[in-house]
Amino acid sequence: MRSKPTPQIRAIWISLVSVRELWEIPPPRTLNSSRLSVSVPVGRFALTDSLTDSDYRYPPWISKGDIEIDDATFSPYYDRTAVCVFVRIDIETVSEYQTQFLEAVTVDTKSKDRIPGVTEILVDELFSPTTDWRGGVTEGGGTGDETIASDTLTDAIVAGQKAATKDVQEKIDEIRRSASRAADSEFQEHRQLQEQRINDYHNELASLSNRLQNASTDIDGANSQQQRVEALEKRQELKTKKEGLQAELEELLHEKEQGYTQKRRDIYRRHAIEVNTQPITFTIVTYERGEIEFSVGTGDRTAVVRTPYAIGAGVTNEVQCDNCHTQLSTENPISMRAGRLGCQNCL
Q1: Which residues pair with residue 298 across a beta bridge?
Q2: Per-residue pLDDT of the chain (347 residues; tens, 9 = 90+)
Q3: Is residue 165 in some structural domain?
Q4: pTM across the whole model
Q5: Residue 300, domain member (yes or no)
Q6: Which domain holds residue 245?
Q7: CA 119 to CA 206: how far, in whole Å?
Q8: 46 lies in a domain?
Q9: Residue 138: strand, helix, or coil
Q10: Count of the separate structural domains present in the chain
């Protein structure tokens, strides 16, 4: 169980322009990042070894192996700065109600790498509704504050927005596929309607042709000048109507030949997905980096493994087997045979 000292922290609120992604179906999405206007940080949360009560994050290449971890000792060398940003993600389409997500992401201000472990600690311990840490939150800058350049902070927050969007990418893709299916269905309905209209035009034109033929028969068989004039007027009226319908049919057939391009474009544009990401608030976090020493063994045989480590982040570097120099991983964990330390690849 982690101890709960009094941290110095201030959640710094910012007014930011949304970073907007506009997706049109089927073209791929684009991401337009806006520059952010941020306030000068006046507080921070110090994530230290004592704060986590030596609750270390064991790498899978050691926890998945056939050895036991007897002890772990962390030696801090220096502090790094990160930003924990809460990002609201809005997804809107015309075919589905608005969907919202709130994602927390922590990003190192120098490397822009994500630090999931720091986020977990902050969300679980600091921002939990039942936490008693808030009683120790102070408003002042406290000691040890360092000014973070606005551009550096901005870049870290933008990196956090992109990372938060990536976290819900599967849901975004699902909504995009749903919107695409809705657009496909609407366009198919439009095509079927146009096919019906074309058939109706052909039927109407065939009927008009018959009526014109009857009008010509009436003209030839008129018994008086008055009947002939009326028949001529009727034929002209039918000819005008037929010419109009033929023009409309030709335009419709041209649209069909072109694949109803404009209508298709309009339908798919209306079903486009719009994704807006906006940072709601962020916290400056300092966390310790250094080296961790794992004491491992089997039975009465023990050995020591040292590797770069960061509080909240875990092991920060890739580690190779000292014996065969193969990279350690979940599939190739550390191992010990007859007191000899290596990996499953070489032992």
Answers
A1: 301
A2: 333 333 322 232 222 323 333 333 433 343 433 334 444 343 467 888 877 777 888 999 988 878 888 899 999 999 999 998 889 998 887 655 678 889 999 999 999 999 998 888 888 776 666 655 444 344 433 334 456 788 888 899 999 999 999 999 998 888 888 888 889 999 999 999 999 999 999 999 999 999 888 888 888 887 888 888 888 888 899 999 999 999 999 999 999 999 999 999 999 888 888 888 888 888 888 899 999 999 988 877 888 899 999 998 899 888 998 888 899 998 999 888 877 888 888 87
A3: yes
A4: 0.68
A5: no
A6: 177-270
A7: 73
A8: yes
A9: coil
A10: 2
Encoded tokens for 288: 């310790």
Structural tokens at position 331: 């599939």
Closest CA to 24 of 273, 198, 319: 273
Residues 6+ apart with CB under 8 A from 80: 108, 109, 110, 286, 287, 288, 289, 310
